Amino acid sequence: MSTEELEWDIFAEEALKMAPVFVRSKIKKRVEEVARERGIKLITCDFMTELQQQEQGK
Questions:
Q1: Helical (H) or strand (E) element with 41
Q2: At 7, phi and psi to the nearest 5?
């Protein structure tokens, strides 16, 4: 797995801050994991929403 830094846009960072403190690191880890798998370099709210919908559909 690549360990390169991913960029988070300001809106995605704010959305992450709205998550309860005890799950933020888990959410961030999962979002970054999927972003790397898909070759995404910039995390956006749209990407987070898409991922959330996919995860809920499992």
A1: none
A2: -95, 140
pLDDT, averaged per 10 consecutive residues of the chain (58 residues), comes to 80 97 97 97 97 90
The rounded Cα 47 to chain-centroid distance in angstroms is 7
Q: Are 6 and 35 in contact, with CB atoms under 8 Å apart?
A: yes
Q: Whole-angstrom Cα distance, residue 24 to residue 48? A: 13
Yes or no: say if 40 and 8 are a contact pair by the CB < 8 Å rule. Answer: no
Tokens 């919908």 belong to residue: 53
Q: Say which residue the tokens 């929403």 belong to.
A: 49
Confirm whether pTM is higher than 0.70: yes
